[in-house]
Amino acid sequence: MDDLERFRAETREWLEANCPQSQRLPTTPADQYWGGRKGEFPSEDSRLWFERMRDRGWTAPEWPEAYGGGGLTPQQGKVLKEEMKRINARTPLFSLGIWMLGPALLEYGTEEQKQRHLRAIVNGEVRWFQGYSEPGSGSDLASLQTRAEDKGDHFLVNGSKIWTTNADKSDWIFCLVRTNPDVKKQEGISFLLIDMNDPGVSVTPIELISGESEFCQTFFDNVKVPKENLVGPLNGGWSVAKALLVHERKLMAEIGSESPRKVLSPVPAAREYLAFRDGKIADGQLRNDLVRYEMRMHAIGLTHFRTFEERNAGQQSAAPLTMKYLGTEAEKEKFELLLAILGSRGLGWEGEGFTEEELDTLRMWAMSKTMTIAGGTSEIQLNVIAKNVLQLPQANQSAKGA
Question: Alpha-carbon distance 278 to 281, whole Å?
């Protein structure tokens, strides 16, 4: 037995002994634990499961042990994910700090910042959210106008951020601010960490078409931010932001892997809701759409695996740049396909007469539209792919050549 197989056997044994049976069920929004000062455990079992995983370093299994992580290799991390999936073990801690901010701090943060923030993230003590987009700066993120003026020992921040997910439930924000308005827009941006308890910070929820209010608008009115909360160099925040976006887009590409709702899957839904003739779906168009969707998902799965193998081999891969676009578009396609399969059963918003799965499918159809916008619209992602993956000439270059 090689070392990786020995690790798999030990991990399987530990999970079987330590994951409560109640934590081996599909995760609903009410079952998610996000940590932070306002966080509450949904149940005693969820608290127990979180503490056991935290104590082993497995809330962030591939982070260094020095910062509270598990110190696992990528291969061991993959094994852990596979073994958790095998028993349907729930994610013990949902955290933008783990998925997004942490990797950026590991790359760009000072040792003091790492010591202060990373272990608090792993331990679920602080809940983070993202402050990038503004009312006038979405796809053109570099045009952001939230100002941070240098006041000697601190920055004075004024402006607002929009689509700040769960800002009303979080403790800190990692935020892009303009620190130099007199240079090229990408070169005058810095990356700040701001405590939501600081005077001058306020939040207003935004209601969504899905009937939920995950998004908020966050306002800064003369907020004093200590200089030690600057991540990376002054006016060098654009590089930090791009590094973080890689992790955000990877997360969004996998957005459907652990659905918080009881949504249907296309193939089982087709068997339940559609008419069959001679052993085949009677509607030829839906049959074709279903086959195309399944082929696309298989190809996306293979691409994920290829990316993992290239990473382990120390090779640079362009595939991750495509995954946010492919993953979110596939998720949108899935719910459009599901509504076509469900027919009138997919039109229920609330009330009796519909199953929970049918109601959730319609709500997730509405939510899937937002995933093709958040983290960079699909159109922006295609531009990124054209430039950095396909290396196509830019429009201004073509004009100059002409």
Answer: 8
What is the b/e burial string over 280-289, where b = at least 16 CB atoms within 10 angstroms of the residue's CB?
A: ebebeebeeb
Q: Of 329, 194, 363, 338, nearest to 264 (Cα)?
A: 338
> How far is the C-alpha of 176 from the C-alpha of 303, rounded, in Å?
32
In 286-335, at which residue ranges do the beta strands (DSSP E only) sit?
none
**Which residues does 287 contact at the CB level (< 8 Å), separation at least 6?**
280, 281
Mean predicted lDDT score pLDDT of the chain:
88
Query: pTM for the whole thing?
Result: 0.76
Residue range(s) defining the domain that contains residue 261: 254-392
CA distance 136 to 143: 8
Split at pLDDT 50, 70, 90, the class of 398 is very low
Count H helices and E strands in the chain, helices first. 13, 10
Within this chain, do residues 260 and 327 fall inside the same structural domain, yes or no? yes
What CATH number is given to the structural domain containing 189? 2.40.110.10
